[in-house]
Specification:
Arc Repressor Mutant, subunit A, Tetracycline Repressor, domain 2, 211 residues, 12 helices, mainly alpha, 72% helix, 0% strand
Length: 211
């Protein structure tokens, strides 16, 4: 009997499921994580926790009940970002042609990098104090990208002479780009150029060229 391979989202689940929360508590927690993600991307990890709680519409005590320290909040935001990015690969693959799914996922990668840049200083600290965090998420993004790239190669909509690891390396380069006001827009344009390069010379692109 053949065993069905796990989807990206299945492989992206946390190793230890979190304690079940009441519906209202879960909503507060999710709102805090989303608000913190936006705040970190906009202003960096030193954003006031009181401001995050206020923007999420809860009291600071509620924030601390869910996230006892700033580092814990950063860790949970980072885990959530990685898991959401990986789960999006499955969703996009079901909804779009392989090359379109890859192109949309690469644009979402820009948002992931924006959040990660905002948490950079705390993530460096966590890297030395919480190796489990990075062990849990290591390889998940690479796996998501590889599946999308492999599907587009098999479909003939991107070139077959590239490695997904090279694409990830190119995408990751936007992390170190200067932090200017137009960083996100420039990064999206660069990602579009990268996608154009992946399509150039592909079997489908060649078939669509006029003689």
């Amino acid at each position: 009997m053949t065993t069905k391979p796990p989807t990206i989202s299945e492989e992206a689940r946390p190793v230890a499921p979190e304690k079940r929360l009441r519906a209202d508590a879960r909503r507060n927690r999710d709102k805090l994580l989303e608000t913190a993600r936006t705040a970190f991307a906009e202003h960096g990890v030193d954003t006031s926790l009181e401001d995050i709680a206020r923007r999420a519409g809860v009291g600071i005590g509620t924030l601390y009940r869910h996230f006892p320290t700033r580092e814990h909040l950063v860790e949970m935001v980072y885990r959530r970002e990685v898991e959401a990015l990986c789960a999006a690969a499955d969703d996009l693959a079901r909804q779009h042609a392989p090359d379109a799914a890859l192109a949309e996922w690469m644009q979402r990668f820009v948002d992931y990098i924006a959040a990660k840049r905002g948490m950079a200083s705390s993530l460096r600290i966590l890297l030395t104090s919480n190796s489990e965090l990075f062990a849990d998420v290591s390889g998940m993004v690479a796996l998501a990208l590889r599946r999308l790239v492999d599907a587009a190669v098999a479909d003939g909509s991107i070139r077959g002479d590239i490695e997904s690891s090279d694409v990830l390396h190119a995408l990751s380069g936007i992390y170190s780009a200067p932090d200017t006001p137009d960083w996100r827009d420039r990064s999206r344009r660069l990602v579009s150029l990268l996608m154009d390069g992946l399509r150039w010379g592909s079997p489908k692109a060649g078939a669509n060229r006029k003689p």
